[in-house]
Design brief:
By secondary structure, the protein is mostly beta strands. The chain contains three helices and 13 strands, in the order H-H-E-E-E-E-E-E-H-E-E-E-E-E-E-E. The chain is globular, with a radius of gyration of 21 Å.
């Protein structure tokens, strides 16, 4: 009995003395948890977008945004409501985790669906200033290298700082993920020369019925253009069933989901 007690005590001492790094989460694990948190439930929300240059408002848009994750494939559906000239414009972004994404645009004027050329993640979505990277910011793609570069406090939240190096010299993305809840509260995108291209910061969260936090307000800055994009997500509902037709490139443009 005494020997057993001594063995247990020795094991406890060894565990206590192990380097802290052995207990730390890896960058990949942190980003996996962020993806689960951000896409744990199917959702639908009204997204209001105001684009400013200097102190002048240059455009305002309103659209429906839906998202779901099934079988390691993340899909986002965008349906424009305002202004009138953009009404009916739709986008579908299909992102298999760890693989190349696909994106499609439906043009109501011609009633045609077109794949976005080269699936460029920087393509502007309907003149909003938003890009595919803004929408799918925490979804892992293929060929990225992740490393935990430190910890930092954003507001009152303690955060992990994760650096994501993009493949083929496309630059790097730095993301601030909260230790509690694994929320992406800030991200910065730099080119291959280290120049800041755009940054995103969540300025307000709200809690879902299940107690999870979800962004309500976000700001995106594009320094070289002097542009600031202000996002407000309203009337959000979670745990919904999204019609299969809205997730299919063949039918997402014409399916009347609000009837």
């Amino acid at each position: 009995m005494k020997k057993l007690f001594l063995c247990l005590a020795l094991a406890g001492v060894i565990l206590i003395c192990l380097p802290a790094s052995l207990w730390a989460l890896t960058a990949q694990e942190i980003m996996d948890e962020a993806a689960k948190q951000g896409l744990g439930e199917n959702f639908r929300a009204v997204l209001s977008i105001q684009t400013e240059k200097g102190h002048k408002s240059v455009s305002k848009q309103s659209l429906w945004l839906m998202g779901q994750m099934e079988n390691k494939v993340v899909t986002f559906f965008l349906d424009f409501v305002e202004p009138e000239e953009s009404k009916g414009l739709r986008f579908l972004l299909i992102v298999p985790i760890g693989k190349e994404s696909k994106s499609f645009m439906y043009m109501p004027a011609t009633q045609r669906t077109l794949p976005l050329a080269g699936d460029d993640p920087t393509v502007d979505l309907g003149g909003t200033g938003l890009t595919m990277e803004d929408v799918q910011v925490f979804v892992p793609r293929g060929g990225e290298k992740m490393e935990l570069s430190g910890e930092e406090k954003i507001g009152e939240r303690e955060c992990y700082v994760v650096k994501v190096t993009l493949p083929e010299g496309q630059g790097e993305r730095t993301m601030w993920v909260t230790k509690k809840g694994f929320l992406v509260v800030k991200s910065e995108m730099k080119d291959s020369k280290g120049k800041l291209k755009r940054s995103l910061k969540v300025t307000e969260f709200f809690k879902t019925a299940k107690g999870n936090e979800f962004p309500r307000k976000e700001e995106i800055s594009i320094p070289e253009r002097g542009v600031r994009i202000i996002l407000n997500q309203e009337h959000a509902v979670f745990g919904i069933t999204i019609p299969d037709e809205l997730m299919d490139p063949k039918t997402f443009g014409t399916f009347k989901w609000q009837n």
